[in-house]
Amino acid sequence: MQHLPSCPSCRQPMEEHRFATNLGGELALDICFPCQGIWFDRHENLKLAPAAVVELFKLLHEHRTDERRPLQNSMACPRCVRPLAHGFDVVRSGRYVLYRCASQHGRFSTFSSFMVEKGFVRHMTKPEVADLAQRVGAIYCTSCGAPVDIRKDHACPYCRAAFSLIDPEAVKRALEGYAQAGQRAAQLHPPQRTDLADALVSLERDRTRAERERQKERFSSASATEASVTGDLLIAGVALVWGMLSS
User: Fold this and answer.
1) Dihedral sign computed on CA atoms, order 141, 146, 147, 152
2) What confidence tens digit (pLDDT) does each residue in 4-25 have?
3) Domain count, the chain
4) Transcription factor zinc-finger domain: which residues (predicted)?
């Protein structure tokens, strides 16, 4: 029986998923859905093919209501168990958080950081932020994952990143060379502000139902109003993109 490496954060076994590479082969990535993180062995993050992006969207969408675990302050490399170093990288689409092994075994990246690294996000416009502030009380920062009160803060107070969301146009460009997804990707359009807000509210309702089923009792926030919802921009964006890909 294959031994699965432990998640750097929660120390539970990760799931192995195989993805296509840009050289025509495949590689195995270790994923922890409750922690929303991916372990990349050295340079694996540079080898994924556009086809892998489609599969990743599918997986994230399928696990959108999974119980979430907060990331621990101290993380360990699943290869050598040495502490991971917390750091930042900056690309054109923004700043993102990552955790590197000092022995160069690889890096641990959250789903949102991976999306920023690959350029699948864009900064939200002022009208989009204003619209969400009226309907959604708080969101999760796409860069570091921290909850932010969008009604008071105009950028993440923890990592200072601007609010961003998955950009279907960027996804479309990444998928242009992927034959099976090409026709569907050509139909993508940026999400409207109301679509994003609706996706966030719908996401939280799905999570509430899932949590209520897990606990077999009334969830304390089951009747929360839309203004008190904490929205995950990453998963909401995934839902929008996956809905258009599969339509």
Assistant:
1) negative
2) 899 999 999 999 999 999 888 9
3) 1
4) 7-48
